[in-house]
Amino acid sequence: MNAPCSTKHLSSSILEPVDPLSQFLTGPRAQSAFALRVVMDPPFAIDVQDGAALTVIVAVRGQAWITAEGSAPRSLHQGQAATVRGTAPYHVADAPEREPTVVIDAEQSCRTPTGEHLELTMSQGVRTWGNSPDGATVLLIGSYQSAAAAGQLVASALPTVAIFTETEVDPVLLGLLERELTRPGLGQESALDRVLDLLLLHLLRVCVQRAEFPVPSWAAGTNDPLVARALALLHADPAAPWTVAELARRAHVSRANMAARFQTVVGQPPMTYLTNWRLALAADRLASSSATTALIAAEVGYSNAFTFSAAFTRVYGTSPTSYRRGQVSPAHRIN
């Protein structure tokens, strides 16, 4: 492993827990996220091709079917919520077999399948859109446009499409989202971003607690006290000169115990996990800032830009510069 450049002091014996979910909500959180109230009367079918990294859909009234590539159609009923992960197109319709009549493109432009623009035709007021001013189905939609890798790490807890029942969804958060969408006021955009973050956090917690999906490595580790402490140490100071021996010393266990427990619970050695986490943080910085590659390398614990670039290219399949330019879609996820 490349020698990290950080020389931060690691003597604190009391550590505030830090997990990737908290890192997500303080890092690549929603910023001017797309949020919309959709009001539809049957029949309807919307082909969503906006390329958003993650979308949250809430059914306020009526029902809809969500069909994503490679997944069976899933029904969404009043009071339920859904998440759709990944940039691949998906359909939202009143019936799973319905052919799309509306296409949502990048930057949320809408048109017919033949190319006729529908922005004005289907506008129903501020942040409201649909084929009827008082349709039988009302959906609240919020989309995270960024595919920054630190966010992808967290989203790895989600399947392509997840449906959350009425008992799993916090009605207070749904009420907040609907209120902010329907009552424009000072700071509405920022308020919508924060409500969307809270709703996503809530749904991610539910998904991690479910037994039906494989639990990602970072989530599995938080259930083991020893590994949870090791993860907290790594996440609190990822650029520090960590070794397995240092992790073991800080956790008051033997090096062999730390290595074995971490491997068993997380599914990979501690230093492999740290490398992937550092690169995930770096990918987010590349996507969301103008900092130089050398500065980002130093921030995540690499001694120089060359060794960082080599490690990044090996994991992400493209150089940091190409990643920043968006020449390659960031498909790598840490599981």
Automatic annotation (TrEMBL):
This is AraC family transcriptional regulator. SUPFAM superfamilies: Homeodomain-like. Residues 228-326 form the HTH araC/xylS-type domain. GO terms for molecular function: DNA-binding transcription factor activity; sequence-specific DNA binding. Keywords: DNA-binding, Transcription, Transcription regulation. SMART domains: HTH_ARAC. It comes from the Bacteria. It comes from Cryobacterium adonitolivorans.
